[in-house]
Write a structure and sequence with these properties.
The protein is α/β, with parallel strands linked by helices. Helices cover 42% and strands 14% of the residues. Helix 8 packs across helix 9 and helix 8 packs across helix 12. The termini are far apart.
Length: 311
């Protein structure tokens, strides 16, 4: 194993639970939408005999490592793309329907722990945060967006109540010199918050989350992507999604509820006239257990939701 490969690791959250949730058939067709370090893909591929796995990732560094890690599995097709494009991806491969789809929406441990990627406030590094290494970087965002735009992003995507003062501090400091590193930004955020708030976890956590979500468009079109993934399932197929914060989880929960919605007639109607029937059965959401929480504190907010297609 090369040094580069060894460094690209991921601690899968709710790992066995997510694999089990797919109810894998050996001859089925499955999609890992966010292959990352290849942990989920490898586990799925090991259960296939005559089946096929499509492993997708938007990170070019992940793709290079996955080429090595998934090489032993002849059933795997590797795709460098964003899973939001799942319909066009499957169409290009001549696949009309699949039996299971897994999407782990978390940032990989490699992306968080590799200083050069600029995701973490624990390392002093260029402010980047781009999963695909393309498009606008975090540095460009904090140095060019208006104060009002920054406030909205930090408040809505980070659920940070001190967003107004943080946005004001960012604009003030960038007028003196451009904000270029993770530590610079973290210190600016810290300076804009009252002492009591700085004791409640790392003061930069919510703002860094917000900027990362904005830069990568993580919530833009997530609802549509969930609908597209569900549409790609065969009857009896399952869609499983692992989320890591409330904004993602609310979107998945809402979409799954729509899939499971049946009759919408008023309660006083004696018989159903709308003809609506549930398209999915939603399984009980799963949270990490005590052992996983103690082993991996990044799992604390994770939730696994699964919907099984009925028609």
């Amino acid at each position: 194993m090369s040094m580069k490969e060894a460094s690209f690791h991921h601690i899968p959250v709710l790992f066995q639970e997510s694999i089990d949730s797919l109810n894998i058939k050996p001859d089925g067709i499955y999609v890992d939408c966010t292959s990352g370090g290849g942990g989920h893909s490898s586990a799925i591929a090991k259960q296939l005999k005559g089946g096929r796995l499509i492993s997708i990732d938007r990170d070019p560094q992940a793709i290079e490592i996955l080429k090595e890690r998934l090489l032993p599995f002849g059933c795997v097709t590797l795709v460098h793309d964003n899973f939001f494009n799942i319909k066009s991806i499957l169409a290009s491969l001549g696949i009309s329907g699949v039996d299971g789809i897994l999407a782990d929406l978390g940032v990989s441990s490699h992306q968080l722990d590799e200083p050069s990627r600029g995701f973490s406030f624990h390392h002093d590094a260029p402010l980047d945060m781009r999963m695909s290494l393309e498009g606008i970087s975090a540095a460009q965002a904090v140095n060019t967006l208006s104060q009002d735009e920054l406030r909205k992003i930090i408040f809505e995507y980070g659920e940070e109540k001190f967003a107004p003062s943080i946005a004001k501090a960012i604009v003030r400091e960038r007028a003196i010199k451009p904000i270029e590193t993770t530590v610079e930004l973290a210190e600016i955020i810290k300076s804009a918050m009252p002492a009591a708030a700085r004791r409640d976890g790392h003061p930069a956590r919510r703002t860094f989350q917000a900027i990362r979500i904005y830069v990568n468009g993580e919530l833009d079109g997530l609802g549509n992507a969930v609908e597209d993934m569900f549409d790609c399932l065969n009857k009896g197929g399952r869609l499983s999604v692992i989320t890591f914060h409330s904004l993602e989880d609310r979107t998945i929960k809402r979409e799954f509820a729509e899939f499971a919605k049946g009759c919408t007639c008023p309660k006083n109607f004696p018989v159903c006239v709308c003809g609506n029937t549930p398209r999915a059965k939603v399984l009980k959401a799963v949270a990490p257990g005590k052992n996983e929480l103690s082993d991996n504190n990044r799992s604390r907010s994770a939730r696994l939701r699964t919907a099984e297609k009925l028609v």
